[in-house]
Design goal:
two-stranded antiparallel sheet; mainly alpha; 92 residues; binds zinc ion; single chain
């Protein structure tokens, strides 16, 4: 058996106090909105969604918010003719 140890800095989530997201994940989320200009208007919402811990993500209110955000981002992508792959397409 191989045991790998890693020290990862985690940010404490402001909503529930759980340690969950690494600063690097937040950085990556920010990069998405910088690279995809059409998502710039949703920057705050994307960041907020990224910052939820797994427990908070499962709350109905957050699932609804995430669905709305995904629908909005999909619309933006469709406007530019760049529809994100849906699950069916990804699986071929
Ligand atoms: Zn939480």
């Amino acid at each position: 058996m191989v045991v790998v140890k890693a020290d990862i800095k985690l940010l404490r989530r402001s909503q529930c106090g759980a340690f969950f997201v690494s600063p690097r994940q937040i950085e990556n989320a920010s990069r998405i909105t910088v690279n995809a200009k059409e998502y710039a208007g949703s920057r705050a919402e994307i960041k907020q969604a990224m910052e939820l811990c797994l427990n908070c993500r499962m709350k109905i209110v957050n699932i609804r918010k995430a669905k709305l955000l995904l629908a909005k981002l999909t619309d933006k992508a469709l406007e530019r003719g760049q529809a994100p792959l849906n699950r069916g397409e990804a699986l071929g």
